[in-house]
Design a protein that fits this description.
By secondary structure, this protein is mainly α. 70% of the residues lie in helices and 4% in strands. The strands form two sheets. Strands 1-2 form a two-stranded antiparallel ribbon. 12% of the residues are buried.
């Protein structure tokens, strides 16, 4: 408003200066006369009073209109809130009346409370379907705030709430049933996988044939250990002993095959890794190999002692050599006897110190095999491999 006023004043001054012809001097009167027409026109056209007053009046009227509109909107909002509150109150009253009416219908014995039996009968009548006792008990526990096993009027929530809760229970049961079905399918897959692994790895109880066959691998260490029994087998009257005769025949056949010892070693080692062969047979194959390897150390020790004694100029008595070799052979027979008796009983001979522990570590188990999605058999990753992978990731 001030800016418009200043502009009007400036225009008036400029126009006044430019219209100097509006002032004239009369020669007769020798006094200046002012022409009123131009100045009056200037006053009427550029006077700032009239526009400023009109602008001020217009602004005030607009402000009054805005204030009036705001007040009107506030009044409308208050009226709408009041109407909404009345509707909510009316709805709440209708629901309370409906709940009270349903409560009176459910309370058949008119004792002021609804028992589980009354609740079950009332819901089945309204919902037109049968409900299990467990489902009704769940409803009672859900809404029985007092915990007295019955519903009072203030605990009765209406049929719609009961219906919604029943649907919620139904959805939860379906979810649990779906999870149980998935779990059952997973367990079935695991069972099938274990059966497939069991079919791959023959860890079944040994049959009579398996027990007899499991004794044969021990002929390998027996043949290689006969060198330690040369004194006992050559004793007087040994030639008439059936065991000695049978052992001599087997030894002759064993030695008749070139490289029989290496062949027996590789055959037992190969068959011992076949998972389709009964575990007892595989176990005895592996243990026979370790027993045969163990026989190498007494011979090595005897050779070292002989070399040391020869270097020292000592002569080992024959009786000492004979007794030591006899002790080794008798120990071998005791070990093989234990293994044979245990195997015939269907029990793994796993009580030999050091040797049995080494055999147990070499025996394959079901956990060593995996079956992929296409049914192919693969080797399961070892703990060492998993640890290396974790170290690489870290």
């Amino acid at each position: 408003m001030n800016h418009q006023y200043k502009s009007a004043v400036a225009v008036a001054l400029i126009c006044t200066i430019n219209n100097t012809h509006g002032f004239s001097i009369s020669p007769k009167l020798h006094a200046p006369t002012i022409s009123s027409t131009p100045f009056s026109s200037l006053q009427n056209n550029y006077a700032p009073t009239t526009p400023m007053t009109t602008l001020q009046m217009g602004t005030g009227e607009e402000q009054e209109k805005e204030d009036s509109e705001i007040e009107r909107l506030k009044a409308m909002a208050a009226k709408l809130r009041s109407e909404a509150a009345l509707l909510e109150a009316d709805k709440a009253k209708q629901m309370a009346d409906a709940a009270e009416k349903a409560f009176r219908e459910f309370d058949t014995n008119k004792d002021g409370e609804i028992s589980i039996t009354e609740l079950k009968a009332g819901l089945e009548k309204v919902l037109k379907k049968e409900l299990s006792d467990k489902r009704v008990e769940d409803l009672m526990r859900e809404f029985d705030d007092s915990g007295d096993g019955a519903l009072q009027l203030d605990e009765f929530v209406g049929v719609d709430r009961f219906r919604n809760k029943l649907e919620e229970f139904s959805r939860e049961e379906k979810r649990l049933a779906s999870e149980a079905q998935k779990l059952a399918l997973r367990e079935e897959e695991i069972a099938k996988m274990l059966e497939a692994k069991a079919a791959i790895l023959n860890d079944n109880k040994p049959t009579t044939g398996d027990k007899v066959v499991s004794l044969l691998p021990y002929l390998f260490p027996l043949m290689d250990g006969l060198q330690y029994g040369r004194f006992l087998l050559a004793a007087d009257g040994a030639e008439s002993n059936p065991f000695v005769i049978a052992t001599a025949i087997l030894y002759a056949l064993y030695r008749s095959v070139p490289f029989s010892g290496f062949i027996a070693f590789f055959v037992l080692n190969f068959l011992g890794g076949n998972p389709g062969i009964n575990r007892l047979v595989r176990y005895n194959m592996q243990q026979a190999i370790f027993i045969d390897i163990a026989l190498f150390f007494p011979g090595l020790l005897s050779g070292l002692v002989g070399i040391a004694a020869g270097g020292a100029g000592l002569q080992i008595p024959t009786i000492i050599s004979q007794l030591s070799t006899d002790a080794i052979f008798v120990s071998l027979l005791a070990v093989l006897g234990y293994c044979s008796v245990s195997s015939l009983a269907g029990i793994e001979p796993n009580k030999i110190p050091l040797i049995s522990k080494a055999v147990d570590d070499r025996m394959p188990t079901i956990d060593m095999f995996d079956i992929d999605a296409e049914g192919r058999i693969t080797a399961a990753p070892r703990e060492e491999d998993d640890k290396k992978d974790d170290d690489k990731k870290n």
